[in-house]
Amino acid sequence: MNISKSFTVVVGFLFLSGCMVGNKIDTEITPIGESYSPTRKVDIYFGEFHEERKYEQIAFLRVRGKQRSRTPKLIERIKLKAQSLGADAVINLETTREIRREGSLALSLIDNFSTSDDPHYQPYEYDEYNALVLTGVAIKYIDE
After folding, report:
1. What's the pTM value of the predicted model, to 2 decimals?
2. Alpha helices, H only, the chain
3. How many domains does the chain have?
4. Considering the domain boundaries, does residue 13 fall inside one?
5. Which of 142, 143, 137 is nearest to 60 (CA)?
6. Residue 114 lies in a domain
7. 142 CB-near residues (< 8 Å, 6+ apart)
């Protein structure tokens, strides 16, 4: 292997070694309606929505926290995502918990290419934790 290829491999490994898995807040957006221009204010409604106003569902939102994430931080994240979609509110907001794994991407990749036939082989172990998850539906009020 020439020097430039070796250098590329080493730099790539160093880059990946800094990448962590499971240590950031994840946001999933599933569009289920039209998209609109961003809004400035989004109301949050936990549980069932009993407003008389008519509305259109525009997206299902799911925010999964990192280790020790708190509800207010995740609510702020879900509000920002809803604003970017042009939502007026997030309804039916629910909190749950989910087991997440945290660790190094580089070490997990090395583990995937390692062989369990090696008597010294020990699989890479992730740290597991119980993450907070918020889900809700972003809506746009319909003016009649």
Report:
1. 0.70
2. 3-17, 71-85, 105-113
3. 1
4. no
5. 137
6. no
7. 53, 54, 55, 56
